[in-house]
Structure prediction request, 382 residues.
Amino acid sequence: MAGFNMDYLVIGCGLSGAVVARHLAERGRQVTIWERRDHIGGNMYDYVDEHGFLVQKYGPHTFHTKKKELYDYMCRFGRWQDYKLTCGAAWGGKYTPTPFNFTTIDTFYPAEKAELLKEKLKKAFSGRDTATVVEVLAHPDEDIRGYAEFLFQNDYAPYTAKQWGVSPSEIDPSVLKRVPLRFSYEEGYFDDPYQVMPEQSFSHFFQNLLDHPNIHVELGVEALDHIQIRNDRIFLDGAPLEIPVVYTGALDELFGGIYGRLPYRSLRFEWKYEEKDSLQDAPVVAYPQEAGYTRITEYKKLPVQTGTGTSYALEYPLTYQEGTQQEPYYPVLTEQSQQQYEQYRRAAEAVPNLICCGRLADFKYYNMDQALEQALNVCENI
Prediction:
């Protein structure tokens, strides 16, 4: 490995690691980043495919936030265009926008019943634009509850079973609450005032973020081949390492699985191209009742691109297995896994020069803005 003429070692070159590295570099610290992949940008990495379309290798990302300071941070390192993501779900030969809205009711209910249900929802949830499916399932009105049960049985339950590999009753309620029900015809997946995509690419944003003389990036380095933790100390190739280490990977892997393996879901992407102008009604469409795959992302629409034909990817969730070519995408949040994570978190806190942040290290299902905010919080405390 390279000589350690540095002040900090950052493990992982996704958003969290890159933001912390930039913060340290701007304060005069020499920072080395180790990234085990052959590219920067983590799961936000994008590239132009052989058909000329900008695609995202690890699934669809857009930046959205309610907080101007987070949007302003992103603007320091790239130019952005407004982009309001629309998503949908399809089953039984019908398509509906998601989050589910009044169009959903019109699509799946006879006209008279649809009007009655929409009036009941507006009255029951007066003054509110949305509610979680968990709330609506608990409503005393039979028609309202029946609507939530219809959506739960046809979408939430089968999608959850495929995506997470567990029944909805086992998954943390926060996961089910991520996609609410809307009480209007409003479309758009997010309600945040700032919703953007890069004018060039996420990869270009990362190039700018890492463009600092105090940052040195080494790709293709498997940090856990060199870093070990013993007796609350970090060792590099067997020798004690005293400089601070910022770690953005999975904590159970860092600690050798001493408290058991934390559960993650991975994805397999099936990439396709067709000689047609459009494949589906929205950039991202869930197919909860199809065998195997959960959703299709049509990258010609994310962002909107011109060109002949269309490139898209089907997503097949699977259980993450360490030591394979799989990537750990999503922490499976159950009561047991979160108790298990707490043991790892306490072990990490006992190592004085270890700093953990990011979706994997925090064992949280962060959106991009949440990961950014957490990384900036870490920066304030370094």
The CA atoms of residues 90 and 323 lie 35 Å apart. The domain at 8-40+210-262+332-381 is CATH 3.40.50.720 (Rossmann fold).
